[in-house]
């Protein structure tokens, strides 16, 4: 009996050991089924067209995100099944290469791999339409007029072309200044960008009726065939429909004798002067209530660029020159200038 029990115990022990061995082997099998990134068959991802989701940031760089890399890997490596959570950058990616490595939590991948590509930020011209109309970061652009591109003579196709070029130049200058503030590089070549665009003119606001004569009321902007990659680091696509607006002589808006060219405002502090002048103008000239930037009253009182100045030896009477000329602004609606007298009432505070 003792021998039988010993034999059964031995068998049981062997069975238990076998179970452990099987369990361990099963775990080892899971590890060995992970895909080694270094064995990836296609490591040159070709061109990456990077979408602009946040214009304030994306316009200024052509460095792909981890999602861009993952999508490109899956596109050129059939059935690879890589997900954003599986990998992370190993070092800092550039516009031409990046090294990725498996994350500590991935159950599907191991190792690391260096990838090459040509990253092109995809500039869809629909963004231009949004900028001109003041949508998104367009509301922050230093433009006098929002809702169209302004031109001196909208019956002259050459003048319209020049206005589009001037708007483009103003926007690029703004973007470059923003890039420099953030220690980034912004290198869109203005002449190449303009040269890549096909501009058609229309006699209606919707861009439906081709212009032949009279007022140009809108334009469509698209990319010339074969010019999609003319601008370094960018891929041009899409189209835009933009209104064309004839500029207005400000002296046809603010008319009459000197008595009609006076404003009276009340302020607690001189810092309020420009905003209070703007309120007075919006009340008096209601046609421009929804486009207050046309007056050019941005900035703070007291700067050299301020359109308001007190008269000599006075702290209650001054003059404002309209439109103001804040540095870097473009797309003006008004031509000429007009000077208004301003009576400044000081509100006493306890």
Automatic annotation (TrEMBL):
<protein>
    <recommendedName>
        <fullName>Lipoprotein</fullName>
    </recommendedName>
</protein>
<dbReference type="InterPro" id="IPR054816">
    <property type="entry name" value="Lipoprotein_mollicutes-type_CS"/>
</dbReference>
<feature type="signal peptide">
    <location>
        <begin position="1"/>
        <end position="23"/>
    </location>
</feature>
<keyword id="KW-0732">Signal</keyword>
């Amino acid at each position: 009996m003792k021998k039988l029990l010993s034999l059964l115990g031995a068998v049981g022990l062997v069975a238990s050991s076998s179970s452990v061995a099987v369990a361990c082997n099963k775990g080892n099998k899971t590890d060995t089924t992970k895909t080694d990134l270094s064995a990836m068959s296609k490591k040159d991802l070709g061109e990456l067209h990077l979408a602009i989701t946040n214009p304030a940031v994306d316009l200024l760089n052509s460095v792909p995100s981890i999602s861009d890399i993952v999508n490109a890997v899956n596109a050129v490596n059939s059935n690879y099944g890589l997900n954003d959570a599986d990998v992370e950058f190993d070092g800092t990616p550039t516009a031409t290469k990046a090294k990725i490595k498996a994350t500590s939590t991935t159950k599907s991948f191991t190792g690391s791999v260096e990838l090459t590509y040509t990253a092109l930020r995809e500039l869809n011209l629909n963004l231009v339409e949004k900028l001109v109309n003041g949508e998104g970061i367009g509301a922050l652009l230093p433009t006098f007029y929002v809702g169209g591109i302004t031109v001196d003579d909208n019956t002259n196709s050459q003048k319209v072309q020049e206005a589009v070029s001037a708007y483009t130049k103003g926007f690029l200058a703004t973007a470059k200044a923003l890039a420099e503030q953030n220690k980034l590089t912004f290198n869109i070549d203005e002449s190449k960008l303009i040269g890549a665009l096909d501009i058609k003119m229309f006699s209606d606001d919707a861009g439906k009726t081709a212009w032949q004569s009279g007022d140009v009321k809108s334009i469509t902007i698209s990319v010339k065939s074969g010019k999609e990659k003319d601008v370094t680091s960018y891929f041009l696509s899409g189209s835009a429909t933009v209104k064309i607006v004839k500029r207005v002589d400000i002296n046809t808006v603010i008319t009459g004798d000197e008595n009609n060219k006076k404003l009276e405002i009340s302020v607690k502090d001189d810092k309020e002067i420009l905003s209070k002048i703007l309120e007075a103008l919006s009340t008096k000239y209601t046609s421009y209530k929804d486009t207050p930037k046309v007056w050019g009253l941005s900035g703070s009182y007291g700067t050299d660029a301020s359109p308001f100045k007190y008269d000599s030896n006075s702290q209650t009477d001054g003059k404002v020159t309209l439109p103001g000329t804040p540095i870097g602004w473009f797309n003006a609606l008004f031509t000429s200038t007009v000077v208004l007298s301003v009576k400044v009432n000081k509100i006493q505070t306890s």
